[in-house]
UniProtKB/TrEMBL annotation:
InterPro entries assigned: Arginase (IPR014033), Ureohydrolase (IPR006035), Ureohydrolase_dom_sf (IPR023696), Ureohydrolase_Mn_BS (IPR020855)
Protein name per Swiss-Prot or TrEMBL: Arginase
Keyword match Repressor: no
Species, as recorded: Halobaculum gomorrense
UniProt entry tagged with the keyword RNA-binding: no
Reaction(s) catalysed by this chain's protein: L-arginine + H2O = urea + L-ornithine
């Protein structure tokens, strides 16, 4: 298996600067060696070019759809990313996208779904199921799943609704922070949502196996979206929207090992690492380690 690393150094989906340095931090933490130790071949495509916020016309920072901020920039980045991911899949590789904030998932999902039906497992404290109208923050990193599923009308953006992803093939793992309208929308949807309480009750093995079978049911492959705020902030402090009560180090590794065992992984992303908020690059290191488990690294 060849894993193609694609850096998407963007911070347009949220308010805290620094998450655009995520790809550098994860590479510096030893990603390439970590992946090699999992036994896969590694190709690094480098980073997509993302214009710095300072280079942009300040007027473009005004919300353009509902209250969604930087939609134009995010459209540019995710369109380029979708091409990179689709090319990688077409070449028989498994793309590994490094965020950047979680808005990059719009591109990863579109690219992965270009010539196939896919499912998705969403490892996250958050639902990321807001729309430009319901979002309390206007931050697009809280909306990518809604965009990919075509939930609600996004009139000016034809890139939303473009994945063909079905709600029936989406499973959340580890939810613990939802906005009120988001909670209602998730309840009304056909998605499967496993919260932290489900993990407490059923254990990580059971929950992740169930999530993988939901996501993988009748599709060509699964996209794994790993938001580092899924983990407990005591072990992953370098994220913009930390929430107490996340998964432990061992639970996270085990979840990734189950992902590797499932053989369904078509594409993956690891997002929301913010080196400015991190302590000695530990969140980036953990991101690198977890991806190596996801690509098959075993203790013995
Ligand atoms: N990918 C993330 N960290 N998302 C956090 C979203 C937080 C909040 N629900 C919002 O819409 O703003
Ligand atoms: Mn999150
Ligand atoms: Mn997220």
């Amino acid at each position: 298996m060849t894993v193609r690393i694609i850096g998407a150094p963007t911070d347009y989906g949220q308010d805290r600067r620094g998450v655009d340095m995520g790809p550098s931090a994860i590479r510096y933490a030893g990603l390439s060696d970590a992946l090699s130790s999992a036994g896969v071949d590694v190709a690094d495509a480098g980073d997509l070019r993302v214009p710095r916020a300072e280079e942009r016309d300040p007027n473009s920072r005004q919300p353009s759809e509902g209250n969604a901020k930087f939609l134009q920039e995010i459209e540019e980045v995710t369109t380029a990313l979708a091409d990179g991911v689709a090319d990688s899949v077409a070449a028989g590789e498994t793309p590994l996208v490094l965020g950047g904030d979680h808005s990059v998932a719009i591109g990863s999902l579109r690219g992965s779904a270009r010539d196939a039906e896919i499912g998705a497992v969403w490892f996250d404290a958050h639902g990321d199921y807001n729309t430009p109208t319901t979002s309390p923050s206007g931050n697009v990193h809280g909306m990518p799943l809604a965009a990919a599923l075509g939930y609600a009308e996004w009139d000016s953006v034809d890139w939303a609704n473009a994945t063909g992803l079905r709600e029936e093939n989406v499973a959340y793992v580890g939810l613990r922070a939802l906005d009120d309208s988001e909670r209602a929308a998730i309840r009304d949807s056909e998605m499967t949502a496993y919260t932290m309480s489900d993990i407490d009750e059923r254990g990580i093995t059971d929950v992740v196996e169930a999530a993988l079978s939901v996501a993988g049911d009748g599709v060509d492959g699964v996209h794994a979206s790993l938001d580092m705020d899924w983990l407990d902030p005591t072990i992953a402090p370098g994220v913009g929207t930390p929430v107490r009560g996340g998964v432990t180090y061992r639970e996270a590794h085990h979840a990734m090992e189950l992902l590797a065992e499932s053989d369904a992984l078509r594409s993956m992303e690891v997002v929301e690492v913010n080196p400015v908020l991190d302590e000695s690059n530990e969140t980036a290191s953990l991101a690198a380690e977890l991806t190596s488990s996801a690509f098959g690294k075993r203790i013995l």
